[in-house]
Structures are given as C-alpha cells and as structure tokens.
Amino acid sequence: MDIATVLGLTLASSLIFMAMIFNFDTVSVEFERIQYFVSIPSVLIVFGGTMGSLLTSFPLGRVMRVGKIVAKVFRQSAEELIETLTLIIDVSKIARKNILAIEDALPSIDNLFLRNGLRLVVDRVDRELVIEILHSEMKYLDIRRDEEVLILKTAGSLAPAYGMAGTLVGLVLMLQNLTDPASIGPAMAVAIITTLYGVLAANIMFIPWANKLAAKKEDDKILREMVRDGILYIEKGERPDFIEQDLMNYLSPELRSMYEEMKFESAKGD
C-alpha cells in the first residue's frame, strides 16, 4: 500500500469534511450540516457524465480497466523493486547450477515481464533476439502506462465541466420557480453543490491519481530495466554476487539500505 497516496487522500478529505461540519463561530461540530452537501442528482451528473464521456473518448476495454488503473495508484512500487531484485538473485543461483531448472520456478513468478524473459532463456532463444523482444515489450508497456495516465487526466478535466453543467441545470430548474422566494436559497445551494462535487472529484481523486500514476510509470521503468539486465545476466551465466552488486545500482540509497538490512536479518536468521 502506498502510504503517501492514502495519507494525501485522507488529509484532503478530512479537512474538507471538517470545514463542512465545524462551526467556527460557536467552535462546535454540527454533524447535521452535512445534509446540506448531499445531493444524489449531483453525484449522478458528475460521475455518470464523466464515465459516459470516458466511454465516448476511449475504447470500452480501456474504460472497463479504470478500477485496475486506480488500484495501481495505491500500490507500493518501492517494495516491489526490492522483492524483484531478491527474486532475480534467487533465480540466478538456480540457473548457475542448471539453467533449465528455472522452468520449475516460472509458475511462482508474479512479474509477467520477468517470467516471460526467463521463459526465453529456458527456451535457449538467441541472445540478440531476447534483447529485441524485451525492448519491444518495454516499449509497449510504456505506451499502455501513458494511456492509463491519459484516462485519469481526462476524467480530471471532465468532472469540473459536468459539475458546471449540473449547476446550470439546477439554475434552470430554480428559475422556473421564482414565485416562491423562500425556495430560491436552498435551490441555489443544491445547484452549486454539483460544481463542488466536480471540483472535488477532479482535485482530490482524478488529477492527483494521474500524477501519481505518471510518477509510478518512472518507477516501473526502472523496475523493468533492472529485470531486463537481470535476465540477460542470467542468460549469460554471470555469478549471483556480481548480478546482485550491479542490479543494486537501480536502488535508491534508502532502498539499498532496506535491502542490505533485509539481507542481514535473513543471514542472521539462517
């Protein structure tokens, strides 16, 4: 779990919620005020409209993956880097004895890029062809990551627009009933809530998530480059200690310290 994403989402939501229910004049919490900010039609306009426009803008298959895309925002990529390095070293130790024995470990490898690369090694594919295949896969993975970021950024631009559209709908309905002055204030409040929903959806969720996914794209790129080098070292039959020393260069100083501490604890446990 990406703690920064959870903290950011929690902090922004909590402060906005507190501003809604806290009465600064009497310095008291008034939970009943939350009803003023609840509007089911506004939710339908903002989120339904945004989803509809996404379906118009992108192929159905990509939009249906929005849930999986958002899940990536909350994934901790730093730990995956360490786990993958450890796995590569373990596989290199197996390959050092018998490279064909790697095949038994393939089903347990979750990283699809690593598993496919090792499959090429087991199948004795020519080294130059392995490099070409890995390069092509890395390129298309980058393209897919860019598409995922684009979907969230598009949602971030659509939500405020639908918020404004909902406000205009509310104003039209309000202007149809000007004969009752007492209803104008509440009707105006409901109309404006739709804009609020659109702004919050864009600036708490979609745009920050797109930015985080773009940052994670760089982390994923580092991970794939490390995996690529690890696969090629294993194919070449390099020593596990050499592979480890070289691949550790992909770790930041903080991750390197974590990795070395993990190795120390593992060695002490043995």
Structural overview:
It is a single chain. A hairpin with a 4-residue loop joins β1 and β2 (28-29). The chain has two domains: 1-38, no CATH class; 39-269, no CATH class. The chain has a two-stranded antiparallel sheet with strand order 1-2. 79% of the residues lie in helices and 1% in strands. The chain has 270 residues and is mainly α. α2 crosses α8 and α5 (77-97) packs antiparallel against α10. It has eleven helices and two strands; from the N terminus they run αββαααααααααα.
Short characterization:
This protein has 270 residues and is mainly alpha-helical. Helix content is 79%, strand content 1%. It has helices at residues 3-21, 40-57, 60-63, 66-73, 77-97, 102-105, 112-122, 127-175, 184-236, 240-247, 253-269, and strands at 22-23, 28-29.
End-to-end distance: 29 Å
Number of domains: 2
Shape: elongated
Q: Quick check: average pLDDT?
A: 85
Number of helices: 11
| Structural class category | mainly alpha
SSE series: HEEHHHHHHHHHH
Report the helical percentage.
over 70%
The overall strand count is 2
Low-confidence residue ranges: none
What is the strand arrangement across the widest sheet? Answer: 1-2
